Structure formats: structure tokens, C-alpha cells
Amino acid sequence: MKALRDAIMNYGQGLGSDIVKVDMFLNHRLDTRLMFDIGRELADYFRRENPDIVLTVEASGIAIALAAAHYLGDVPVVFAKKSSAANQSGNMLTAVAHSFTHGNDNVLRVDRRYLPAGSRVLVVDDFLADGQASRALISIVAQAGCSLVGVGIAIEKGFQPGGKKLREDGVNLKSLAIVQGIEDGKIILADD
Amino acid sequence: MKALRDAIMNYGQGLGSDIVKVDMFLNHRLDTRLMFDIGRELADYFRRENPDIVLTVEASGIAIALAAAHYLGDVPVVFAKKSSAANQSGNMLTAVAHSFTHGNDNVLRVDRRYLPAGSRVLVVDDFLADGQASRALISIVAQAGCSLVGVGIAIEKGFQPGGKKLREDGVNLKSLAIVQGIEDGKIILADD
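YS: structure for the whole thing
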């Protein structure tokens, strides 16, 4: 997706061998026009699957999830809440996502009432690296008795295993930009 | 604002004497159409002030901030990150917001680069109760050398002191719905 590729090349920073810093437009400051462009692109890709809920995880996924939901006909968004605590109420669906970046486990939780059984759920997130968050959301979709129609991602780190594993599992995964690697601080993108 | 009032009356739950639970449409499941309606209403109210950045705090503020920013001409959104840790880098503007609900202090932090001095900043959030989060964001706006054009809120808890204090301080505050109190589990709204 050209607008996203341009933003990554113009404003993204590669740090060390694996950190892709895109604070400037995706996960601290939000480039509003780009959020809508990303949402529209994901909506166009998954529209034929007729998703009726967009599921993401707080916080950075919310903006593109809302935009995608808008272009899918204003379907609702549900965002999983993150907490380190494992306390569980009967109404909450939970799954653990390990964070390699922070070295801790997050418990993602979604109120069961907001994923009615039989719903067709599109999972959306800003980043895909090891795939822990996506897998946790997919687990929650399954626990809810919903169908996963696919996973839409803004930026995939292609040099980490999350995307490959999801594709091997037959998940309909669409990443709008794939980072192949970082060389001397420069972010290398895969061809579209 | 009628659509928001209707959502509160139809789907909101009053718990105890002071909890307004609106998970169903505002801060866990998002009613996408309503998020845009709220954003448009805030944008219309503050448009004459020419805000060029919308500032909020993760996570629940992001959706209405993005929608407001869209109707203000796709100005950027910046969302403050919340953490309990006090570690500070030179580039981060920080302010403490005490949470009466959770009984802890959150440190809100914004990268200084994303609030260029002289910017006209609209602060947006889903809730206003004690005003701790709004005041922390206002402090960050001042630290950045920016102008605060106003504070736009979806739901104000009028029986808590945050809104009154902000108005006394001369802040241009617009709350789209004001909860007067909770009686026997029923949410009582102030007249528009």
C-alpha cells in the first residue's frame, strides 16, 4: 500500500536489528488521513468475507480498526483490554499474549457479550511480529464460537515468525506493508 | 446530543452510586456510527477555534479523537501513553493523573516532538469525572508551549467535581452528555 510504504520510508526509524519505530504516524501520533486509508484498504480486501465485527486490542489497534469498521458499513469494533492480572470474571474471554519486547505476559480479555456466537470477526492490528497478540485474539474468537474471516495488519515484520505461522495455519492474512529487515538503521520493505 | 443520550439510556448501566458503565458502545465495544457522530459534534463545536492537533489518552479516547480529527480536516491525533512507571526520557512530557477508580497514579506521557510549540490543541476524552486525566493533558499542552483551545468530552459525570473545576478555570469545556446521578441503577441525565 503506497501511502503506508511512503510513511514508513519517510518517517519510520529502524533501531537495532528489529525495532521498527513508527510513532510519528501509527502508534503515538496518528496521521488521521493515513488511518482512514489503511482502514479502507483492509475493508476493501475483506469485504467479500462479510465481517460483522472488527476485533482489535488496545491501544494502537483502535484507530485502524475504527476506520476499517467504518468502510465495512459501520460494523461495531471490539477492543480487547490488556492487563497483567489474571483475575477472571465469568463473562470474560481471555487469552495470554507474551510480549517479547517487554518480556512479560499480557492477558487479553473480551466480554463474551460483545462477541455473539456465530459472528464473522475480522481481527485487525497495527503490527504483526511474533504473532502473539493475533493468536490470542484468534483464540478469543474461537472461544466465543465466532468465525474468523481473516487478520488485517498494517505493518508485518517479515523477519519475525508470526506472519509465516499464521499463513501456514491457513489464516487469511493481509499485511499492508512487510518489513524485510533493518540495515544500518534503514528499514527495508518487501515489494508489494 | 440525542444519539449519545439514547445510547446511554438504552445501553448504559448505573452501578452503585457513581459507576456509569457504557462498555456496550463507548469503551470496550464501540458503536462505530456513534463514534463518528460524537466526533462530528465535537468538531462542529470547536471548529471556530481552529485546532490543529487533537490530544487524547489511550485507550478509550482514541476512537472519538480520531473521528473528531477527521471532521476537523484530518488533523493529526496524539494519544498520551499511560504507565505506572515514572521513568522519563528527555523527550517525553509527563503529568500524573490519579485514578480514584483504581486507586493508583498513572503517568501520562507524550513525546515532545508531536506537540510542536504554538500548536492549537483540542483535548478529547470519553469520560470526565474528577478531571485528573484532562488536567494532566492540559498540563502537557502547557509544557509543550501549545495553546489549549478546549476540552471535548463524551460523558461528564456532573456529580463529580472535574467539570465544575475546569469551567471555573475558564476552560472551554463541551460535554455531550452530563450524568446527574444514579438512582436505583438508573442513570439520570441532565437536560441538554
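YS: worth flagging: The radius of gyration of chain B is 16 Å.
IM: good catch. Also The interface with chain A takes residues 23-24, 28-33, 35-36, 58-59, 62-63, 66-67, 69-70, 74-79, 81, 110-111, 113-114 of chain B (CB under 8 Å).
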